[in-house]
Amino acid sequence: MSRFERHVFTCINERDESDARGCCATRGGVDVHGWFKAEFKARNWKGRMRANKAGCLDACEFGPTVVVYPEGVWYSPRSREDVQAICDRHLEAGEVVEDLVIPGLG
Amino acid sequence: MSRFERHVFTCINERDESDARGCCATRGGVDVHGWFKAEFKARNWKGRMRANKAGCLDACEFGPTVVVYPEGVWYSPRSREDVQAICDRHLEAGEVVEDLVIPGLG
Questions:
Q1: Inter-chain contact B57–A55, Cβ cutoff 8 Å?
Q2: What pLDDT band is residue B14 in, cutting at 50, 70 and 90?
Q3: Testing the interface with B: which of A48, A67, A71, A76 to mutate, by most B Cβ within 10 A?
Q4: Residues of B30-39 as b/e, b for ≥16 C-beta within 10 angstroms?
Q5: Helix, strand, or coil here: A88?
Q6: Each residue's pLDDT tens digit, B32-62
Q7: Does B94 touch chain A (CB under 8 A)?
């Protein structure tokens, strides 16, 4: 069995303002990562789940970008409620939260 | 099918020197990430595999720490040759490189 039941990576990559792709940092990536950390702490998930910062996940235009392993599901949560939905329905219950999935990323 | 066949995260977290755990940054994490990037480029793996920087993976004392998804295998590569072995044997061929696995992390 893998070390963590589920491992959540949130892009916090910061690009120069001149870059047309934009970046997850300005799209709220740092907040999203912080919300995952706060939810994990509140749920006592230490050792069971892990929330990690990540560098560029190559999906800048869809950001803030999150990928959940081992399933490899790509999300773009925009609010604390979105993060809570991913925690409740995917991380805890194992269901993909279809309305937060980034279309086309599998 | 997931977006990437395999997704490699390397910790580049930097801690204060006073921290007894040490950190992956001083244990070579930045070099290891760079070696993965260079190998992926040389192998034309863009779009198929991805090498990412990660924040602290909570395995500081075993660093430099790498985790490969979707399998969730934890490695501590110390050299370019170690990184090449992970590329050849795990990422390409799907075999776990047992002698580079961090014991006990699953």
A1: no
A2: confident
A3: A67
A4: bbbbbbbbeb
A5: helix
A6: 999 999 999 999 999 999 999 999 999 988 8
A7: no
Whose structure tokens read 């192998």? B43
The token duo for B61 is 């004392």
Residues in chain A: 106
Q: Supply the pTM of this predicted model.
A: 0.95
Largest alpha-carbon pair distance within chain B? Answer: 44
Cβ B77 vs Cβ B32: under 8 Å: yes
Q: Which of B37, B67, B76, B105 to mutate to test the interface with A (most CBs of A within 10 A)?
A: B67
Q: What is the pLDDT of residues B54-77, one digit of tens each?
A: 999 999 888 899 999 999 999 999
DSSP line for B19-65: -TT--TTTTTHHHHHHHHHHHHHHTT-BTTEEEEEES--S-GGGPSP
CA dihedral of A18, A19, A21, A22, whole degrees rounded to 10? -60
User: How many residues are present in chain B?
Assistant: 106
